[in-house]
Design brief:
elongated, 60% helix, mainly alpha, 5 helices, 85 residues
């Protein structure tokens, strides 16, 4: 019975969220870009009063840094201490 219920729930999700999947993906990417900007603000020269707390989040954003700076329109890494290109 649980597999039928799971299949039914998946079908409902596909029916209702399917047309908006691209919009949801774009919204998630925008949110991730803003998070990246907040974490890297101090490194980019923007004064950040929460830099002490965001410094521990730097390892979490390093793997996505290359895609982020290319989406932001920067050919090369804007940071001297992070060279991904």
């Amino acid at each position: 019975m649980s597999s039928r219920w799971a299949s039914f729930m998946k079908g409902l999700n596909d029916y209702y969220a399917g047309p908006y999947r691209k919009t949801f993906g774009r919204a998630q990417r925008d949110e991730d870009d803003h998070f990246m900007l907040v974490v890297l603000a101090e490194s980019l020269g923007v004064p950040d009063p929460a830099a002490y707390y965001t410094a521990e989040l730097l390892p979490a954003v390093y793997e996505d840094f290359h895609a982020w700076h290319q989406r932001a329109g920067m050919e090369r890494s804007p940071l001297d201490h992070i060279s991904c290109c």
